[in-house]
Amino acid sequence: xxxxxxxxxxxxxxxxxxxxxxxxxxxxxxxxxxxxxxxxxxxxxxxxxxxxxxxxxxxxxxxxxxxxxxxxxxxxxxxxxxxxxxxxxxxxxxxxxxxxxxxxxxxxxxxxxxxxxxxxxxxxxxxxxxxxxxxxxxxxxxxxxxxxxxxxxxxxxxxxxxxxxxxxxxxxxxxxxxxxxxxxxxxxxxxxxxxxxxxxxxxxxxxxxxxxxx
Length: 214
Prior knowledge:
The chain is of the alpha+beta class and 214 residues long.
């Protein structure tokens, strides 16, 4: 048989061979976003006390955007990265009126969160930072607004049954790439930012650093 290996289209690299990029996150959604943009990166989970950082920021009177940035910086600093690597840290805080929401720990808590958000708009303060050797090179906060429709209790029961424990890792208790899209009447903002990483702004920052082609 003829060798057809040369007929396979191979990705054309859009980034420099070095230095490496590291994403300080265990989020599969953030990893998927980078991979879909053909960004080669290592993925390392950062072990930080998010609740303590949030509590300190709130006690100091910081808003949700500033707090999300502090969380992103903490994650980027608390991983082992090779010298010279560019480290991406990211985090999200959801606010509805003056209430800050954490990820739910149980489906019962998820149900309570969704009932509070039902019929109201809420904001996702999505922060991303780019660091190198401990120095912050760039930071950004995107604030998409999502309008949750006034769904019925029967729909909520079915939704929780369909999604199950998958939503326990999601602030807001939804995945737009899944059944969560049914919760909304309108969405204002970049979908990547809603999923946890403001990708357009990050790509521009990587280009400014010479990591991606201009």
